[in-house]
Amino acid sequence: MMYRSTITEICSDLKKGKLIIVIDDEDRENEGDLVVAAQFATPGNINFMAKHGRGIICAPMESKRLQDLGIDLMVSTNEDEMKTAWTVSIDARHGTTTGVSAYDRSRTIKALIDPKTTKNDFVRPGHIFPLMARSGGVLVRAGHTEACVDLMKLGGLKPAGAICEIMNDDGSMSRTPDLIIFAKKHKLRICT
After folding, report:
1. What confidence category does residue 160 fall into, taking pLDDT thresholds of 50, 70 and 90?
2. Where would you tag: which of 34, 50, 109, 144 has the fewest CB atoms within 10 A of its CB?
3. Phi, psi of 118, rounded to the nearest 5 degrees
4. Residues 6+ away with beta carbon under 8 Å from 47
5. Domain ranges of the chain
6. What phi and psi, each to the nearest 5 degrees, are found at residue 86?
7. Rounded distance between C-alpha atoms, residue 184 and residue 172, angstroms
8. Exposed e or buried b for every residue in 70-97, given b needs 16+ CB within 10 A?
């Protein structure tokens, strides 16, 4: 069964502000993440992620930008098997309330890519977890973080996005057969 879309189709949807699903290898996490370009991380898209994805909403981006914003890695020694580069969680300092609403999380993600934003425009801890993509992308680390940033670059978008793992109704992680059903139900494209 052919369920994967072409990179051209994926990039076209991302440029239109649509969500897509990225599935990693069965020998890795074997999970699917909802992905949207950071510039299209609207309250509606963030709410969809929270409601239907159910995982943690993160913001993959290039390390240089995170360093410029003074957003540090969460730990100095990463013991995670997959070596996901989690940073300290943040909220936008301005234009938000508690930071947890879809509006506030959207505002925080958009602040991350705003060239006028400085490190003083964030509070720590918060409700968005920026993820530091490895230089070299999926050729260096085949993770959702790098896939997201690579897809944004291929699509001519800012090299940052919002991602959220997809879980089943019972709280278990969605695997490929479940993700295909999910994608059809919500009319989303899938890539690996």
Report:
1. very high
2. 50
3. -120, 175
4. 102
5. 7-191
6. -70, 140
7. 19
8. ebeebeeeeeeeeebbbbbbbbbbeebe
pLDDT tens for 32-53 read 999 999 999 999 999 999 999 9
Q: Across all residues in the chain, what is the average pLDDT? A: 96
Strand partners for 58: 129, 163
- Chain centroid to CA 156: how far? 17
pTM: 0.95
Q: Is pLDDT above 80 for 164?
A: yes
In this structure, which amino acid lies at residue 147? Answer: A
Q: Between β-strands 161-166 and 32-37, what pairing exists: parallel, antiparallel or unpaired?
A: antiparallel
CA 61 to chain centre: 9
Burial class, 25, CB count within 10 angstroms (exposed 0-12 / middle 13-18 / buried 19+): exposed
Fold annotation for 7-191:
DHBP synthase (3.90.870)
Confidence class for position 81, pLDDT limits 50, 70, 90: confident
Helices (H) and strands (E) in the chain, counts: 6, 7
Relative to beta strand 20-23, strand 32-37 is antiparallel
